[in-house]
Amino acid sequence: MENVKVFSIIIAVFSVLSVESVGLKDLKTCNFGAVYNFGDSNSDTGGGSAAFWPAGKPCGETFFGRPVGRGCDGRLIIDFIAEHLGLPHLSPYLDSIGTSFRYGANFAIGGSTIRPQNESMSLNGVSPFSLDIQIVQFDQFKDRTGHFYNRSYPRHRRNLPRPEDFSKALYIFDIGQNDIAAGLRKKNDSAFHASVPDIVDQLAKAVQNLYEHGSRTFWVHNTGPIGCLPVSLHYHDIKPEELDEQGCLKAQNAYSMEFNRQLKARVIKLREELPHAALTYVDIYAAKYELIGNAKKQGFVEAANICCGFHEDEIQVYCGHKQNINGTEIYAGSCENPSDFISWDGVHYTEAANRWVAHRIITGSFSDPPLPIKHACHKP
Questions:
Q1: pTM metric for this prediction
Q2: What stretches of 7-86 adopt beta strand conformation (E)?
Q3: Nearest 5 degrees, angle CA 14-CA 15-CA 20?
Q4: What domains are there in the chain, each with its CATH number?
Q5: For the chain, N or C: smaller number of CB within 10 Å?
Q6: How far apart are CA 218 and CA 224, in angstroms?
């Protein structure tokens, strides 16, 4: 715990000094007219529900009062980012009902990976909408909306993005956790480590594709501490020596850290390759690990506790599902107060935890360069 405190202080001091060194007070606020997001369930605002099957109750209960396609009781980090930028929540690209794309679109789909996997949604939850497909969808979205915008009456344009906003938009990448999960599932350390350069390079190619078509500002999340997810801790027989000081699986977190190390190096290289781009690397891992290490101080229960689901006596029923156990039907509902929990369902965070993380990353405290998100269009 003391190590976490010291680490937090160092991060805070470094961020203040670094922000001052790049002359933040002299930078103008970026005019992000739109946000385009690419990702997995951590930022899926309803694409998965539109493509496969809708997220049911009790998801959405805290903020929206009903299921709205998010694997959470309320808002996600991407929702808080949009609110901070003064924009509405992003509409999923695949959702055709009540949709407006005037201020951007969300291509994230739950279960998505950076690198296409030879697996399926029905087998193990892997989405066919890998990052390369999401980029193809964006390219088509941009071409088609531009076509209709220039040929529509003004009243028909209100739900379409302005063509000039694409170059001034913020492009967010929040993907990679499922690539790591796939590596863990295959239980082959050497194969996973050999695959990381290609996984990272495919994300870089997605950025390059967008850059070649005029995109300039990129906000790239690394992946969180997968070894701290309660689903990992509840579904495995674990020996004490396998855990770190925060009760997380060291071996699984090592996968995340290796991916993050190579991702950061690739982002730095992209800055040289794309001279007109502003690329921000966001250390989601550090932010989430700090929250987990200070859970009780921040008003949460133990980080390994799960709000939604039934996990007792080796019986595991996933959030919102029903299961017959020895003649008794068990419904895996939510806890009484989700805002006390970090984990919503063992994999995804609660709205309260998402808010905690979002409010810290938007300041630039966990970013390289350490610029607030409203200044992310600037190159220090």
A1: 0.92
A2: 35-39
A3: 100
A4: 32-300+349-375 (3.40.50)
A5: N
A6: 19
